[in-house]
Amino acid sequence: MNRDEVLAAFDRQVRAGQGERAGRVVRAAAEGGWNGVLWSDLDESTADAAIAEQVRHFTSLNRAFEWKLYAHDRPDDLAKRLLAAGFTAEPEESLMVARVGDVPTDARPPEGVHLRPVEDEAGVDLLMDAHDRAFGESAPGLREELLARLAERPESLAAVVAMAGDVPVSGARVELEPSVDFAGLWGGGTVAAWRGRGVYRALIAYRARIAAERGYRYLQVDASSESRPILLRLGFAQLTTTTPYMYRPLVS
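Above: the chain sequence. Below: its structure as tokens.
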């Protein structure tokens, strides 16, 4: 895998190719969903004005938003400019990518755990319960976003919950946007008692099988420091890093 070529394709297809173009940025704005800047093409002369415009836009909507900054984004001091504009940085993540065919798909969940596909509101509720248990916090707007996606574009999403009996212990989803080469893997956090027992690997394999069946070339993950070593062992490579910069206006 040529990392520079794959990263360029990711920027072109996933970042710049999705969402709404507004000048020299591409953003997503969704009531009850994710709001933020996906991609930008800025330099020292345009960065501050673009940042100020996005702050005005999302503040006018009374929404917090994320500027998703990648290590190769320009200008070189874009992170400092975001901080100066009132953003706060969250923990850095690794952009991990693998060819679909290079990822093992035979991993199964450990004894006592079975995988339940998410196909309805009850499944989404289990997925959210697993998320809250694993991460110790809720994800505002995610439930509504997933329900809307299942209702309006079910072909673009596949989600699954790992169940220990009738208790959700992990949940994950794969986003399958049309006309791109990358299937995006999200979630996968596992409750403490079940970590290190193969649940996460089983969820990767489950979603890799779906991506292969749908004809996607690559799997993409924004990986935490905990999941990065597992993904490396499964055939993923780190292309770059990404840091969420959050802006939280005083909402009314």
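The two ends are 48 Å apart (CA to CA).
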